[in-house]
């Protein structure tokens, strides 16, 4: 049995149904669950495919412990009439529904807006899809990487033009899915607030597209193209709009990120590496001048960093109060005292995995911080409890559904 939701978190008392799979919708509900909402995750009898993703221990996904934390798992065949009826009864007690099926799939399952309004007037319904709920591409298949490509990110994460024949580099996590999940969480909260203020009885819809979520991050890509016809180019480790900012090699084969892209910081860094000639060069006195001569600057900075081991170089630059860091692996993240002090490295007890490290809760809300109440559950662990509590089904009715393989 899953522990019942408690009063930790500002969303305590909010109940959200998730009909999601893979990443985007589950990421949205994880954020909301961390902040106190009660999350009921509806899974098919075979389970969410993400249960099998990532590194494993005891033949179980470690990521699942995080991805499904604070969620009650209900394994039910929603495509069957009996399963749909049970889910409809649960929806009647919920404040929001989050899904990432193909556009129109929720209605085809028997959960159209008209049905949802009847079940729960004022229900917030959040859709996450590749291209959105309307438009000529709405029915196309998509995952996060597709959103990253169409939204412009994959083009910008490529190697600088002319430097490599390798494919464009992917961000190391499913960023498009996660960003869409964050926007969906914002949309759910906005609609819940609006519902409380306006007292409207109609469904409150949130429509999030992977492509649009990524595009919204693209800084000056659109205005520069619209006004000047410029196409924003990949820059590798640099930033196209400010310099010097890059990753610089150290003597022991690591990389040190240095971001000295203000007039004050530039002068401080040049003094540190013994290049007063650069500090006094009028062509480098402005950011635009430094961007134009980024090759020259980066060569001089790299000449200095190559003379030092990574830890020494990082300490020297940090002591000069210049934004800088080594590139962290998981080992450095776990050892980092700032992450530890802020509660971002959590030891969570997982019933199947033992103690598992989880990332902490973001955003930090010091007065009402939320909680990791429990790790990702076994498939169908909460089916009986949820159907009894919210669908008001008897043990005999639940047993019949199980014998007919409607639930597991």
TrEMBL record:
GO terms for molecular function: CoA-transferase activity. It comes from the Bacteria. The keyword Nucleotidyltransferase does not apply. Keywords: Transferase. Transmembrane segments: none annotated. Pfam families: CoA_transf_3 (PF02515). This is Formyl-CoA transferase. It comes from Salipiger aestuarii. The lineage of its organism: Bacteria, Pseudomonadati, Pseudomonadota, Alphaproteobacteria, Rhodobacterales.
């Amino acid at each position: 049995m899953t522990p019942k939701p408690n009063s930790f978190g500002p969303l305590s008392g909010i109940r959200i149904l998730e009909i999601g799979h893979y990443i985007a919708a589950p990421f949205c509900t994880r954020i909301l669950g961390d902040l106190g909402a009660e999350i009921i995750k509806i899974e098919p009898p075979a389970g969410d495919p993400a249960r099998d993703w990532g590194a494993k221990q005891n033949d179980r996904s470690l990521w699942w412990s995080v991805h499904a934390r604070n969620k009650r798992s209900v394994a039910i065949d929603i495509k069957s009439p009996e399963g749909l009826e049970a889910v409809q009864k649960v929806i009647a007690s919920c404040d929001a529904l989050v899904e990432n099926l193909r556009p129109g799939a929720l209605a085809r399952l028997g959960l159209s807006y008209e049905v949802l309004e009847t079940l729960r007037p004022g229900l917030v319904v959040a859709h996450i899809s590749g291209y959105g709920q309307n438009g000529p591409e709405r029915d196309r298949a998509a995952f996060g990487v597709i959103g990253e490509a169409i939204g412009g990110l994959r083009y910008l994460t490529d190697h600088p033009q002319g430097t490599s024949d390798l494919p464009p580099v992917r961000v190391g996590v499913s960023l498009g899915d996660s960003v869409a999940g964050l926007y969906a969480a914002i949309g759910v909260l906005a609609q819940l607030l609006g519902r409380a203020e306006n007292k409207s009885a109609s469904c409150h819809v949130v429509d999030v597209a992977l492509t649009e979520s990524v595009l919204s991050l693209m800084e000056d890509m659109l205005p520069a193209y619209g006004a000047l016809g410029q196409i924003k180019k990949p820059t590798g480790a640099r930033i196209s709009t400010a310099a010097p900012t890059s990753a610089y090699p150290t003597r022991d084969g690591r990389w040190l990120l240095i971001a000295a892209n203000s007039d004050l910081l530039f002068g401080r860094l040049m003094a540190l590496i013994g290049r007063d000639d650069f500090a006094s060069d009028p062509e480098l006195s402005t950011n635009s001048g430094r961007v134009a001569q980024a090759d020259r600057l980066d060569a001089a900075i790299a000449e200095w960093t190559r003379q030092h081991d990574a830890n020494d170089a990082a300490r020297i630059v940090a002591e000069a109060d210049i934004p800088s860091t080594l590139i962290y692996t998981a080992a450095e993240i776990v050892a980092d005292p700032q992450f530890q002090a802020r509660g971002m490295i959590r030891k969570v007890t997982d019933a199947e995995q033992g103690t598992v490290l989880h990332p902490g809760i973001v955003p930090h809300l010091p007065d009402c911080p939320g909680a990791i109440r429990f790790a990702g559950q076994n498939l169908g662990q909460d089916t009986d409890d949820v159907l009894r509590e919210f669908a008001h089904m008897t043990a005999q009715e639940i047993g019949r559904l199980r014998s007919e393989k409607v639930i597991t």
